[in-house]
Design brief:
The complex is a heterodimer. Helices cover about 30% and strands about 35% of the residues of chain A. Chain A is of the alpha+beta class.
Amino acid sequence: MSAVLPAMPAARTRPATHSMKQWLRPLASLRLTVTLLGMSIFLVFVGTLAQIDGGIWTIVSQYFRSWFVLVPLKLFSQLGQIFLGLPETWNLPGYLPFPGGWTLGAMLMLNLVSAHAVRFRMTWKRSGVMILHAGLIILMLGEFITGLFQIEARMLIGPGETVSFVEDSRSVELAIIDRSDPKEGVEYTIPESMLKRQGKITSPDLPVDVEVAEYMPNARLSPLGKTETAEEVYTSKVGARFAFQKTAEAPGVDTSAQSDAPAARVKFLRKGTDEVLGSKLVSLYFSPNFTRRLPAYQFPMQEFRLGDKTWHFELRGQREYLPFSLKLNEFRFDRYPGTSTPRNYSSKVTLTDPRTNARREVLIRMNEPLAYDGSTYYQADFTRHDERGTVLQVTRNPGVWLPYISCSMIVLGMLLHFGQLLIQFLGRRVPT
Amino acid sequence: MMVRGWIFGLVFLALGCQEEGIRVLRVPKPAPKRTLAIIVPRSDATWFLKLNGPGDAVAADAATFREFGTSIQFSDGDPPMRYTTPKDWRIDDSPAAKGGMFPRFVTFRTTNDSEVIVTKLGPEAGAVLPNVNRWRGEVNLNPIAESELPPLIEPIEIGGTKATFVDVNGTPKAPEGR
């Protein structure tokens, strides 16, 4: 029988395949699978513990959507204090370096793909496992795509206003704005990640150098009484006086917490020099949309002079401009007659898209969002002080269907696999 | 096939390592707003007719707006005003078009999506300069002095009453959200 084996084709292909398999073998190890799964469980555990102090999206970004994380050992002392009654003075110093969620996910995926290349054979008996594993790969890819490309943003439109941008609800940017041209404004934006690092930011793309003296993930604006004083007093357009107070991030475990309002102390310097053009505290509170345009919290836009030009700047939700616009014709907050119980929220908007010359009126209501250009616009909120402006929640996730596809494949794979085993088992029993 | 799979994986890893940088965004400013208005001072009331909208839309609707104004006839009975609605204008009866502090007599939408508002206020509201400066503020212009008024206004007769026609050509203004 061995004489009839097709020796020639195998002689050409086997060495390459063989060496590849040799190379992949350590990656395909089942021990590695178990180790990685164990490490993933540990990462989820410490990521959950970290929400005692940290905000949920900060933790998601630091622990799960990262390649590497430094786990503070004080988390374990906090755990001991809560569950074992250890004294509060007992604190573990230092950090545990640990792979982040993306590293573990990528390793698990490589491990799975390598295992299929090295160990698994494509047979009918294995088809269930194959489909199940393919589902797992799609699940991991889905999370990766979501982490990289998902947008969760808000669009606030005042009555009669036309707006063509959305602002990210979870990350901020410092925008330096030149409005001197009558036809277009030019905005130079510095992302939150660069502000967080603090220090001097120089770039050929920026009109000035920016020095971030301090970055605060959360600083609350507290109203001041008429006679109260503070080191720095900020007065809004209607004359209300406030002071800033640096506070901790709202912890992920606190479900009633307000949104964090980052702030930073920045200096604008003439390029390549130490000449200070302006030194200001910037805060998300100065962005009118953050406070839903509440009149008491509206501040004049901050500015500095450079040459004969006035430059404006503000800290705001990371903004994305859209190739189309929405104009708010009417916002309605309907209540049940004779009560203050909400019945319906709706926004009548005109969508204008110059790319297609489209111009149509759209009604966005609760559970009836507008799906357009790859994003979905949900009725989310409104301007509370006048009930005339609308707030739309905007989501875009190119991987939105991948979890559904992967879960369906996993269920199908399990049904197939266990179905085959059941049939096999019943087949064995029949003769006896 | 395996090599392609690895390349795909490496591209993904590279994407994950990318860091956000400084962006330079060029944002077209919204079209300048323009307001044409007619102030009709009568003994019992001041009537305001206003055409608001983007500059080019208002320019396209300007002649029709004048025709609408000159079609108006006042009476002492009810309704206090009669007019001929221009072809293709439609009455806007949405709650937002009812007006807030100053209830509107009627609001129209033109085919160019300009807004035509007719408001009736007390006889004391007919001074031209304060109204012109209020409308200038609405289209992002600074107030002017009495001496700067003449080039912006012209006399017009509406329903047998001497009235003032005003043209306020604005500059672009960003939404309140900036």
